[in-house]
Amino acid sequence: MANQQPNSGNPRVDIEYRRKKSAEEMKHQVITFAMMIFLTIVAFVAAGYEGFSAWFIVPFILILAVVQVIFQLYYFMHMSHKGHEAPALFLYSGALVGFITIIAFLTVIWW
Amino acid sequence: MAAEQKMTYETWPASPEKQTLEAKNKFLGFWFFLGGETVLFASLFATYLALKDKVPSSDMALAKDLFEIPLAFMMTMLLLTSSLTSVYAMYHMKNFNFKKMQLWLGITVLLGLGFLGLEIYEFNHYVHEFHHSFTSSAFGSAFYTLVGFHGGHVAFGLLWITTLMIRNSKRGLSLYNAPKFYVASLYWHFIDVVWVFIFTVVYLMGMVG
């Protein structure tokens, strides 16, 4: 991965290697971005389309949102890199508490 | 490696955002903060979902009367693109290219400003055209709290990034300020993460019914 220190003993070669690595990573970021734009457009089209029922659209666009957020976290925020065990623990703990909160608020208004 | 040491293109490390102890602590602490922010926004989402369309009289505007696809789409595109431009800024930071990093951060700020402008227009539109205000209904309170809190985060992020850019404009990159830029960009991505759920849960689900 791009975040590791190379050690060929020749700093010039290492820099070239690192530059190439991060250029490659940047290319992946652009692909990620294109996919996020695509998912966004799909979500907007699905919500605007009269032919689907809300029972299909709502879960569908929620799944698209979750996928987009995973792209954002793992690629744009580099959670796929090494050394992100603690960040992942913090974020998922937050997400778990948040999820329980949402479930609680949604069920408390059921009657 | 000392934080204040003058760096060159050759000596710039692969992970400048995590070289010093202070940087490592900042990185960890910031992610802990983002975990807390997740809980904060989840609570606001929960409140919004529970109070959505709860209005005192039947002639008041509901979610499906208020929201329009083109505006929400424009705002989404602006914020999503600003997320990519801040990735570009961090790419140049890792290559020790201070000028290009500043340029892309500047573009990020402009896109963020565009987003904020549209949001101000939107709120103004709801208040004046639909009499949908913070105090008009439980729905209004929940809506403005959730979306307004996000807008406040955008405004704070813009001030933060702009301050960093101005403060360090004559200093160039060092191991002291690289983590600051990195953490600010993480914050900016997190704002986009929250927006993905806002446009889905508030705008799209609001239009569906």
UniProtKB/TrEMBL annotation, chain A:
The chain crosses the membrane at residues 30-49, 55-77, 89-110. Signal peptide: none annotated. One of its GO terms (cellular component) is plasma membrane. It is found in: Cell membrane. Keywords: Cell membrane, Membrane, Transmembrane, Transmembrane helix. The keyword Methyltransferase does not apply. It is a multi-pass membrane protein. Its main location: membrane. InterPro entries: Cyt_c_oxidase_su4_bacillaceae, Cyt_c_oxidase_su4_prok. This is Cytochrome c oxidase subunit 4. It comes from Cytobacillus oceanisediminis.
TrEMBL record, chain B:
The chain crosses the membrane at residues 28-51, 71-91, 103-121, 141-166, 186-206. Residues 28-207 form the Heme-copper oxidase subunit III family profile domain. Pfam families: COX3 (PF00510). One of its GO terms (biological process) is aerobic electron transport chain. The keyword Transmembrane helix applies. It comes from the Bacteria. It is a multi-pass membrane protein. Belongs to the cytochrome c oxidase subunit 3 family. This is Cytochrome c oxidase subunit 3. It comes from Cytobacillus oceanisediminis. The lineage of its organism: Bacteria, Bacillati, Bacillota, Bacilli, Bacillales.
